[in-house]
Amino acid sequence: MAGAPANLSFMRFSTDELPERERLPAFQEVFGRAIAKADVEPVAGTQLCIEATVRAMPGLGVWIGAFSPIHGRRTRELIADGNDNVTLWMCPEGGSVISQCGREVTHHGDDAMLLSNSDMLSTTMVRRSHHVSLSLPRKVMLTMVPNLEDAFVRSVPKDSQPLRLLKSYVGVLEQDLGLATPELRHLVVSHVYDLAAVALGASGDVARVAESHGVRAARLRAIKTDVLQALGDHALTVTAIAARHHVTPRYVQMLFESEGTTFSRFLHLQRLAVVHGMLRDPRFAERTVSAIALEAGFGDLSHFNRDFRRRYGESPSDVRAATARRNAS
Predict the structure, then answer these.
(1) Is residue 114 part of a domain?
(2) Any residues with CB less than 8 A from the CB of 231 and at least 6 apart, and which?
(3) pLDDT in tens, 277-297
């Protein structure tokens, strides 16, 4: 698939939002011809159901979506569009049959696969599947992975650490629809290139540079996400997080130090933010401040109260009282 057009920054496509009679033509024209640059159709006997988001940044297209069984084809006519990007296709569930460059493979599981947009392609998703696709400039990737074309229609193992980091990084990015500045978008694209190159077998200086930039950024983002999801765990420590991510505690500390902070300070500030948010939320008005603090992961309530006042300039009780007054007015 060719990826999103360059002038499209973000688009969400859902067949559920369309009248039934319009779903197939809209899917074929909007998602198929305009975005994927492919002929698409549902597999016979199946109901068309698509939920997908498409994001385009300079030098990168990202698709994330769930698809009912479909056929897709990049025909001789369609590859004349001059798009010579490559697509890294990651399908964490379902199955598919892919044919390109004289190779036909049946794809299962979490492995990824590299495809060429300048060669005819046939794909059939045989079951409902969720997948992530990245459209990457061939010229850029060739400078990072000189034997890039040897990787076409060959699986990238799911247990590859760079691939796991890449999936995590792209997934978290989709939750941040802002990416407000050109500098931030450029940085994100650079990180994705680094991770994709390492996953596809980059070596030597390219691999070392990628490790020091994109791979480190993706690991830090994955670790932060893990921390945010486990704030209420009183046993959450840098040692526990390091073990979950198969790195050393010192490496985790170095990642946070690169942002001018520490693991402990990041954890502490996030817990304070959770408490502050809950105290301002009328849904938690019946809970005591102590119960909220304990739920957020605090064990020492005297230190919590002192640090909360230092952070927000008022006590937890003051925040709750101000919220009550606003709700009463």
Answers:
(1) yes
(2) 267, 270, 271, 274, 296, 297
(3) 999 998 898 899 999 999 999
